[in-house]
Amino acid sequence: MPETRTFRIAAIPADGVGAEVVASGRAVLDALAHGSDGAFAFDWAEFPWGSDYYARTGKMMADDGLEQLKDFDAIYFGAVGWPTVPDHISLWGLRLRICQNFDQWANVRPVHFLPGVTSPLRKADDIELDWVVVRENSEGEYAGLGGRNFSGRGPGGEVAVQSALFTEVGCERIIRFAFDLARTRTRRKVSSVTKSNAQQYGMVLWDDVFARVAADYPDIETESVLVDAMSAKFVLRPEDLSVVVASNLHADILSDLGSALAGSLGLAASANLNPERRFPSMFEPVHGSAPDIAGQGLANPIGAVGSAALMLEHFGLPDQAARLNKAVETVTGAGILTRDVGGTATTDQVTKALIDALNG
Ligand code: ATP
Ligand code: MG
């Protein structure tokens, strides 16, 4: 009997619907491991960090939290943010702290249509939508550079500066990552997004690096598109895209647009990768804590489950990831849908249906 491969996963449900969707993803992953006849297993540790923890301790995570996380094989994250804590505190205190310290510089966000889910795109019946948005996750507009009170002019005259940081190394590694990803896909195309007509330093550096790297991948079709034009293209010519690589801010916005076009923010999965594997990578749905529906059993767990599939790929279990994605298609195709995608099923009902589909 071959030895069981055990993957140690740190679960951080954090805020709002994060708890509901992480519980769902864990149940589905455990069902998958249970059915593997001992081929692999998941060993979970759960961390109680987030906005409740902040209310008790004044911190979003333990002081030595990164030390506690660093030896896990992966982090499975829910969502962070709650109306009682300013967003920049909750985000920087937990999620971005992990992303930055564990050098998770590539954020991968697949977007595709699911059977049984209606897209707001009128053309949805006769088009394919199958993209991956690759987001630069370590610098750009979210580098945290700048400050307030630059003018010294007092109340009413305040000036704030928010700078974006682009390094040649940072641009090159994410652009290469996008090209390498495109090589694994049926449609071998990389679309680069900037706003280099209006932002003449960082964005132009990005464009220069893109052109240079593209020369190393003559087998891959390329285009450079301004972010405003790309927003329109997402809606008007979705079939024309495959891998879309963009800065931290632009890809953040475009991936929300993409998941809405696929049917709901609740469907979108993401992986924050440290491609060198020096630190754990983090897998999380794209959506936030959704205070408007939290605690009501209405959350769509598909984004979190899709993120679990990305985690399986990261563990070198692509067949298991495919099984999980297939189970998702079986369940949505059968019309077992949460309210955000037009159904009446609860989070638990979708979870149970996913487990049944895996066992079936
Ligand atoms: P963040 O700033 O963290 O990205 P946000 O303010 O953009 O968060 P979300 O919390 O993602 O907002 O919620 C946006 C909308 O999407 C809300 O109406 C919410 O109910 C809905 N939503 C988000 N996640 C889900 C989900 N898993 N299932 C159903 N609806 C969801
Ligand atoms: Mg958002």
Automatic annotation (TrEMBL):
Keyword Phosphoprotein: no
Family (UniProt): Belongs to the isocitrate and isopropylmalate dehydrogenases family.
Organism lineage string: Bacteria, Bacillati, Actinomycetota, Actinomycetes, Kitasatosporales
Catalyzed reactions per annotation: (R)-malate + NAD(+) = pyruvate + CO2 + NADH
InterPro entries, A to Z: ICDH/IPMDH, IsoCit/isopropylmalate_DH_CS, IsoPropMal-DH-like_dom, TTC_DH
Source organism (scientific name): Streptomyces antnestii
GO molecular function: D-malate dehydrogenase (decarboxylating) (NAD+) activity; magnesium ion binding; NAD binding
Protein name, UniProt field: D-malate dehydrogenase (decarboxylating)
Domain Isopropylmalate dehydrogenase-like residue range list: 8-354
Keywords: Manganese, Metal-binding, NAD, Oxidoreductase
Keyword Manganese part of the UniProt annotation: yes
PROSITE patterns: IDH_IMDH
EC number(s) recorded for this UniProt protein: 1.1.1.83
Cofactor(s) of this protein: Mg(2+); Mn(2+)
